[in-house]
Write a structure and sequence with these properties.
alpha+beta, Arc Repressor Mutant, subunit A, Alpha-Beta Plaits, 9-stranded antiparallel sheet, two-stranded antiparallel sheet, 34% helix, WH-like_DNA-bd_sf, lyase activity, EC 4.1.1.111, AsnC_trans_reg2
């Protein structure tokens, strides 16, 4: 879609450093040299078009006791649609894709504190009639999240994020706050005041709590999320690499430093599935992705990866926590 120059800068700002103050859209307008009303109108249009998925708090699930994993099922072709619908119905599933492999359904799933993610994956396998499944939890994170540069010459880049290895137990009132701030921020002059009113809090309490959770790493960032395809990045692939254990800490950061790589993880491997390093890459077309893969092979000295292209998107949403808690 056609964007005015200041709108391209706006998209960059709200992904990188959304203003946590009573009138954030006014602050953005002043930075861009336009009126607050223009910013609000533009964001409304960009949300309606599907380019902006949402603006809100992005939590670190593990910081509040949730456990997550990547998983894949080998589902008979005739059952794929039915299986995808069953998996999508679970609130802890945020992404679900059909990919070009005998393990054809790939999804991420999170479970509440005290639950085991592999048990949930096994349940999905049993209920969908899958012939086999892969349970691929993270061993080490090298890179997570990405900023999409909508300039024609731009590419993905790293956002500011905070993470923690500490687990926090949120009180019931804090869970109410978390539920509120992980929803899409209203497009009104004082959005945090509107959120606060809905849960009988003050604007200052909402903003103060978000900043506190950011400082602790419970919230990774407060920002806008864009849809890659609507931002012009129609090429994307998951790459599964076989990397010698002793080279993971060398090659993982090397891959993570590439602008086209949005996610990079070490994951559990098995004798029958030897891939232990996973990267998500994005380009403006599949040709861009092929060029990135060649560069990654050159940089790492590794054998060519297993390239898993997305054939169909069954689900892509931001994980919302505390669905299991009483309201």
């Amino acid at each position: 879609m056609d964007l005015r120059p200041w709108e391209k800068e706006l998209l960059s700002l709200i992904q990188r450093d959304f203003p946590l103050q009573p009138r954030p859209y006014k602050q953005l307008a002043e930075t861009l040299g336009v009126a607050e009303e223009e910013v609000l109108e533009s964001l409304s249009r960009l949300k309606s078009s599907g380019l902006i998925r949402l603006i809100g708090a992005i939590f670190q699930p593990s910081a509040v006791g949730y456990r997550s994993t990547l998983a894949a099922l080998s589902v008979p072709e005739a059952k794929v649609e039915q299986a995808a619908a069953l998996i999508n119905a679970y609130p802890g599933v945020s992404h679900n894709y059909l990919r070009n492999h005998r393990f054809n359904l790939w999804f991420t799933v999170a479970v509440p504190p005290g639950k085991e993610p592999e048990v949930k994956v096994q349940e999905f396998a049993n209920r969908t009639g899958a012939r086999d499944y892969l349970f691929l939890p993270i061993v080490k994170t090298f890179k997570i999240a990405v900023i999409l540069d909508v300039e024609a010459s731009g590419g993905p880049s790293d956002p500011k994020t905070t993470t923690t290895e500490t687990r926090f137990v949120l009180a019931p009132e804090e869970i109410r706050l978390a539920r509120a701030v992980q929803e899409d921020l209203p497009l009104v002059s004082r959005p945090f005041a509107q959120v606060a009113q809905e849960i009988n809090k003050t604007e200052a309490e909402i903003l103060g709590w978000i900043k506190k959770m950011l400082s602790r790493g419970v919230i990774r960032r407060f920002a806008a999320l864009l849809r890659h395809t609507r931002a012009g990045f129609t090429g994307n692939a998951m790459l599964a690499w076989r990397c010698p254990e002793e080279k993971l800490d060398l090659i993982g950061p090397r891959f993570a430093a590439l602008a086209e790589v949005s996610h990079c993880y070490q994951r559990r491997s098995y004798p029958h599935w030897p891939y232990n390093l996973y990267t998500m890459i994005h380009g403006r077309n599949q040709g861009d992705c092929s060029a990135v893969i060649e560069e990654m092979i050159r940089l790492s000295g590794l054998k060519p990866p297993l390239v898993l292209y997305s054939l169909k998107e069954f689900k892509k949403s931001r994980l919302k926590l505390f669905w299991d808690e009483p309201r």
